[in-house]
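pinned: reference chain
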Amino acid sequence: MKRLYRFLFWILAVVVLMLLTAHFTLRHALNTPKFKASVLSYIERATGRPADYERIDYTLFPFSLVIRRAAVKEADGDRDFVALKSFSVVVDWRKKEITSLILDEPFVRVVQTADGLWNFSDLLPAPKPGDAAEPADAAGEPPPEAPPAPAKEKPAELASPPLSIRLVRISDALFEYTRFDDSGEATTLTVSDLDFTLTDFAPDLPLQIRGQAAIGEASSVAFTFSAPPPGDYADQIEKWPLDITAKLDLRDANDLAAFLPPDTLPVQGLRSTLAVKGSLAEQFRVELDLETSPPTEDFPAAANVQLQAELRLPLPVAQHLISGVPLPDEWAYDPPPCTPPDGAMSLHDSPAALVLRHLQATVEATIPSLAYGPNQLIDGDFLIYLRGGVLTFPKAVLSAYGGQISARGNAQLLACPLSYRLEELTIRDLSIEQVLAANEIPLPSKISGILEMDAHLSGHAVAEAGLNSLEAHAALRVRDVHSVGAGGSLMDQVWLHLDHPLVLKLLPRVQPKVEAARHAADHVTTSRYEDVTADLTLRDGVATLSNTRLALPDYRLQIEGTMQPFDDRMDLDARLIVSPAETLELTAGKDLSERLPYEDGGLMVPFVIEGSLIEPRVLPNLEILLSQALSGTKLADEIMPRIENLSESDKKRIDQGLKALGKVGKYLK
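pinned: its C-alpha cells
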C-alpha cells in the first residue's frame, strides 16, 4: 500500500513539475522575438495594418492574461488606429465568472473621408450578393413533396449557469473622430479622459454602471446606471426597474462640430440633466432639466426647460415588442385599410401605431424662458396626455411680447389622415410693436398696438399639397393703435385713391384732401386708430373676412370679402364711412344723400381691393357710386359728358355697373 501511495505521489509530482515547466516555458515563449513576430505577422495579414506590442503575461491560478502597450497602426503605418497601455483579464473557471476585465488608456481613431468612406471600411465584410430568385414552377410539374414530419423534441437539458462579470473598467480612454469635407479640411471630435466602470453583471447581483468623459476642449458628460438583480425578472424582463442619470455640460458647441451636421445646434452651450426611473411595463418616469447659454448673434437660441413625463405600456404589449412574445388578440391593433388624401399624413399603419395605440403618457413641461434672437417666450406651462392614440393638451400657457397666449386642443394620431383640433387659442395684451421689431418685419411706418384674439383651428396633418384642407376661425381686436412714419397716414392713402375725376365731380371738397395727402407723403405723420376688429374664417383654401373694421377719428373703414392665400389672390369690398360732422365739411353743409351713398348719417365711399396679396389694386367702386348718382336725372345730365371723357378702362367698369342696373340704353346711347 505504501508503494502505491509513493507511486501516486510521484505521478502527482511529475504532473506538477510538467505544469510548472510548461508554465514558465510558455511565459518565456510568449515574449520571444520569434513568437512575437508570428503574432504580429498574423495580425497584419488579418487587418492589413502593422501592429506591435511590448509584452504578454499570464498566470494559471487564477487564470489571467495581460497585454502591455499594444497598437494597430493605420493602413499607411503612420498613426495609431487602435492602441492601449495595458489589457488584463482574470477568469475564475470554478465560479464561471470574469473576475475583472481592465483596459488602461485605450485609444481609437475613426476617420471619415469626404466621399463617406471610413478608415475601417476595408475591415468590414463585403455584402453578400442577393440570392437568385427561384424560377416559377413550369405548368404540369408535380407539386413539391411535403416536408418531413418534425422529429420528436428531445427533453430540454438543464442550462448551465451563465458566465458572470464582476468588474469591467476602462481608464483614461481617448476617442478621436475626424471628418474631412470636400475641400480637404478636417474637423475633429475628441472624447478624452473617458472612465467606465461596470460591476456585478450577474443574474443574482445588482448591476452598477458609471462613467464620465471630457468632450473637446471644454465640455463633459457623466452617467450612472443601476438596477436590481436581473435574475429576479428573468421571466418578465419588461418589469425590470432601472435607475439612470446623465449629465451633459456642453460649454462650446464647437466641441461637437465634427459629430453634428453644420448649423445643427443653434446654441453656444447647454447644461442638461436626465433622470430615468422605473420599468416600461410598470411606470417609467423621465425628468429632464435643460438650460442653455444666453443667445448671441452666431447662436441665436436659448432655452430653460424642465420636463417630467410618466410612461406606461401594458405588459402584453411590452413583452411582444421587447421579448417577441405573441400578442394576445385583445391587444392587437389592426386598422382598416385607408389611403389618405394627397398631401395628407397618416400614422395609422406605421410601425409605431401599436405603441401609440396602447402607450399611456402624461407630460408636464415648465419653460421659464425660451428665446430665438429677439423673440422671447417666458412662464410657459404645458400639460399633455396620450391615451388610446389621442394626444390631448388641456393646458398650454406662455407669455410673450408683453402679453399672454393660451391654448387647448387634441390630435388624433391614429386617424387617417392624422387630424388635429385646436379648440381654443387665446391671445391677450400682445404688443404688436414688439412682434414687428423682434421679427424685423419691414413696414413703411412704425406701428404699435395691443392685440387680442380668440381663435380655433382644425384640420389634417398635411404637406404643402394639402393645405386647402385647413379650417380655422379667428376673431381679433387691436386697441390703442398708433402709426408713425413717412408716406402719410392711412387716410392719406385713401384720399390718394379717391383722386378720380368722377369722385372729384361728386365731391369737390375731396380735392384739398388729395393735395394734403400728396404733401404728407414727404413728411413723418402720426396716426391714431380708435379700434381695429376682424373676423377671419378659412375653409377650402379660401379666407373670408367679415366684421372687419378700422376706426379713426371721423372715419370708419369696413372691409368684407375673400382672400385665397395659397393662390395669392384677394377680392375685397371696402367702405369708408364718414362721420356726420365730417360729412357736412366735405359736402359744404349740403345733404347729398340723393346723389351719394350714405350710411349711419354720413357719407359712404365704396372701394374695391383686388388682385395679388402682395401688391393689391385699390380702386373706388364706380358701380355703386354711379348707381346712386344716376338715380337723379339732374345729376345724370351733368355727369354724362364727363363719362365720355374717361379712360377706356373706367368706361368699361362703368358700363359693367350700368349693365348690372339695366340702364345702359338710357344713359349710353
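why pinned: Residues 573 and 608 are 5 Å apart (CA to CA). Residues 2-29 form the longest helix (28 residues).
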